[in-house]
Design brief:
The protein is an alpha+beta fold. Helices cover 18% and strands 19% of the residues. The protein has 2 domains: 1-28, no CATH class; 39-117, no CATH class. The mean pLDDT is 82.
């Protein structure tokens, strides 16, 4: 953009003399945060926590006890590492980091492993922060 396309006088008078009728409309990229986008995302449920795989989809609701599909009206739903979570808790915050299904499966497998082998870690409970005093060294 140059001064003439913005309607700014070339004499250096600046914004005070900006002619807004000359300016063309600006198209911005983005999305509507009120309408979820189906797919896989990664997100930290707490500050200082670990990433979880978030799946968002539109479909029949799942039974919270056994996970079977209920005969109800379709709606937007979300899971975090395979466990149901309120959609308002993750959307639109998770939209910044979409991932593919392979990475989502890796995050879910890492959480399942931690639940069995390291139950006190933040990977086993993603609502817990990583404690650097008790966490294993990264090397």
């Amino acid at each position: 953009m140059n001064a003439q396309s913005l309607g700014i006088a070339g004499d250096g008078r600046g914004r005070a003399h900006l002619d807004y009728s000359v300016r063309t409309s600006v198209q911005r990229e983005g999305f509507d945060p009120d309408v979820p986008i189906a797919g896989w995302y990664r997100l930290k449920l707490v500050s200082g926590g670990v990433f979880v795989a978030v799946k968002i989809w539109f479909g029949a609701p799942l039974d919270p006890i056994d996970g079977t599909e209920l005969d109800r009206a379709p709606r937007w739903q979300a899971t975090a590492n395979g466990e149901q979570i309120d959609l308002g808790r993750v959307w639109p915050k998770c939209a910044a980091e979409p991932i593919d299904q392979a990475e989502a499966e890796y995050l879910i497998a890492a959480a399942d492993w931690a639940k069995k082998n390291a139950p006190d870690s933040a990977f086993a409970n993603p609502r817990r922060r990583i404690n650097p005093l008790t966490a294993a060294p990264p090397f």
